[in-house]
Amino acid sequence: MSLLNSLLDDKLWQAFLEHKKASILSEREIKKYQEYINNKEYEEIAFKLINEEYEFSKPRRVAINKIRKKKKRIVYIYPQEENYIFKMLSFLLYKYDYLFAPNLYSFRQRSGCKKALSDLIRQHMKIKHGYKVDIKNYFNSIPPEKILKSLKKDLQDEKLYNLFEKLLMNKMVLSDGIEIEDEKGIMAGVPLASFLANYYLKDLDQYFYDNQITYCRYADDIIVFDSKEKLEEHRNYIINILKEKGLEVNPEKEFYYNPCEEIEFLGFSYKNGTIDLNKNSIRKIKGKIRRSARGLRRWMIKNNTPPTSPLKAMNKKYNKKFYGRDEDDLSWKYWFFPTINTDKTLKIVDEYMQDWQRYIVTGVHNKKNYEKVPYEMLKGAGYRSLVNEYYNFKKNNENIK
Questions:
Q1: Angle between helix 10-21 and helix 27-38 axes, rounded to 10 deg
Q2: 30, 20 in Cβ contact below 8 A?
Q3: Entry pTM
Q4: Around Cβ 367, how many Cβ atoms within 10 Å?
Q5: Given its phi and psi angles, is residue 114 left (phi above 0), alpha (psi -120 to 50 degrees) or beta?
Q6: Does residue 192 contact residue 90 with C-beta atoms inside 8 Å?
Q7: pLDDT digit string (tens) for 6-15?
C-alpha cells in the first residue's frame, strides 16, 4: 500500500495534530490546524492524490532579501490547503528515517542543532583540526533527475514516487503572477524539501559514519574533524561528491579550525565548554536593529508622532524575532536558548537594542539618554530583555523535566 493512502487515515491526521500541538506553534496556528483536520478538509485532495488524479497548483516564486548581499534567497509557496497536505506527508515520511545516518541532524525527530553540537563535543572535536563548508544554494540547485533516480529505488512506492516526479519535473512557477519556467531544484520553502534535502546527500553522511570520522551535516552545512593530514582528504572527498551531484561549495563559507580554536557552526560558537551565538549572528542582528531604529526615527519625525508609537513597533517586530512561535522561521527562543550555556552575547544585544531604542526618541547616542529615556519607558512600550527571557526559559524547562 502506498504512503499516500495514509492521507485518508483520520487517526494519523489526529497524530499529526498532536505532533503539531507539541511543537512551537502559536495557539492561533494550532487552531487553524485543528479546524482543517477536524473538518476533514484534506479528504478531497487526498482522495485524488491516491487515485493519481490531482494536479497541484503552480508554486509562487518569492525572492527574499539577504542582508548585505545583492543576491536574494528564492523560496516557493503553495496555497495553504496544499501546504497542509505537504506538511502531513513530511510527517509520514519519518517512516524513511532509517535511510539516514546518525550524523545527519536536520529535520529529524529527536534531533536538531543541540544534539549536533552535543555529539560533536562528545567526540572530542576540540582536540582535532576542523573543516566547515556550506553548499551553495543547496535546495534549489539539486538536479531533480538525479534525486529522482535514487528515490525510485529507496521509496519502493510507485504512487509516492510519481508525486515527487510531478512536483520536481514541472518547471512552471508563478513570478509576480506571471507563469514562467524555472530551475527550482527541490523548492526551498516547500515542506517536502526538508526530506529531500536530507535524502540527497545521505551517502556522503553514511561514508563518514561508517569510517567513524567526526562529522555533522545540518541540511547544507557540513563540518568534519580529524588530523591535519587527513582533513584535506576529507575536504577533497566532500567537494568531489558534491560535484558529482551537480552541487558546489560556497567558497566564502569554507573555514579551517585548529585544535582548541573557537568553532562556529549553525549560528553558534564553541570554545572551552562555552556555547554562545557566533560573531555573524551578532553582526546580522545588530545590522537589523540599527536599520529598524533609523527607519522608525525618520517615520516618527515625518509623521510627528509621539515616541511611544515607534518604540512599540520596534518591540513588536523584535519580540517576534526573539520569542515568536513560527514553525517555518525559528525564533531565538527556540533556536538559540535551548543550546547556549552563557548570557554573554545576549547582554551585548540587550544593551545594543536599548541604545538604539533610546536613539529613536532622542536622535543621538549619549549618556543623557538614560535620563531622557528610562528603562521603564522602554519596558512600557513592550521591551523584553533577552537575558531575562533566557533565564525564564531555562527555569521553565527545568521545571518541566
A1: 180
A2: yes
A3: 0.90
A4: 6
A5: alpha
A6: yes
A7: 999 999 999 9
234 compared with 127, residue with greater pLDDT: 234
Sheet holding 263-265, edge to edge: 263-265, 268-271, 274-277
On average, the pLDDT of the chain sits at 93
Where do the H-state alpha helices sit in 249-304? 279-303
- Burial of residue 109 (number of CB atoms within 10 Å: 0-12, 13-18, 19+): exposed
Compute the distance between CA of residue 317 and CA of residue 106 in angstroms, rounded to an integer: 27
**26 phi/psi in degrees, rounded to 5:** -70, 165
CA distance 22 to 105: 19
Burial of 198 (0-12, 13-18, 19+ CB in 10 A): buried
pLDDT tens-digit readout, 148-198: 999 999 999 999 999 999 999 999 999 999 999 999 999 999 999 999 999
Strand partners, 82: none
- The three-state secondary structure class of 73 is strand
The long-range contacts involving 151-157, CB below 8 angstroms and separated by at least 24 positions, are 151/199, 154/96, 154/99, 154/199, 155/96, 157/2, 157/3, 157/4
Q: Render 264-275 in DSSP notation, one character per residue.
A: EETTEEEETTEE
Nearest partner of 396 among 326, 320, 313, 323, judged by Cα = 323
| Residue of 281, 377, 356 lying closest to 322 (CA atoms) | 281
118 with 221: CB under 8 angstroms? Answer: no
**Which residues, 6+ apart, have CB-to-CB distance to 173 below 8 Å?**
58, 59, 60, 61, 76, 179, 180, 181, 182, 184
338 grid coordinates: 535551548
Instruction: Return d(Cα 167, Cα 140) in angstroms, integer.
Output: 13
For residue 180, what pLDDT is reported? 95
Q: Residue 377: what are its φ and ψ, rounded to 5°?
A: -65, -40
